[in-house]
Write a structure and sequence with these properties.
With about 130 residues, the chain is α/β, with parallel strands linked by helices. It has five helices and four strands; from the N terminus they run βαβαββααα. α3 crosses α4 and α4 crosses α5.
Length: about 130
């Protein structure tokens, strides 16, 4: 189950985003949490989360937490708005967070190459 929490004033957007993420889960065929919450938030909340959990006192675009059966992906809508194409960047950050939930990372050169290759492949499936 994927649930999107937060407001988006674009008709049909949440439904399209949820379907996009479900499709990624099907394509990945990896074990994943039964419940995935996408929490759309702002700079202020992201800065608090980043400072509290990652010890970085600045805002960021996306933060993911995998608790086993439940996962949370926080997406910064202010960040997406600043980049211009709101609908694209929210989907992009949700995808990025979902890949983290599925076990991908970008700490090493090899990990970065694998994760970003997946990210590029899957974002091309986004349609809205």
């Amino acid at each position: 189950m994927i649930e999107i929490i937060g407001s988006v004033k674009i008709k049909g957007y949440k439904k399209a985003l949820k379907q996009f993420l479900k499709n990624i889960l099907k394509l990945e065929r990896k074990k994943h949490p039964k419940k995935i919450y996408i929490l759309l938030t702002n700079d202020q909340k992201m800065r608090k989360l980043n400072k509290q959990f990652l010890k970085k006192d600045k805002t960021t675009d996306v933060i993911s937490f995998n608790f086993g059966k439940i996962a949370e992906i926080y997406v910064n809508t202010d960040y997406a708005k600043r980049l211009g194409d709101f609908s694209y960047f929210i989907a992009f950050y949700c995808l990025h967070g979902l890949l983290h939930i599925l076990g991908y990372d970008h700490k090493t050169k090899e990990e970065r190459k694998e994760m970003f290759k997946k990210q590029e492949k899957y974002i091309n499936l986004w349609k809205f």
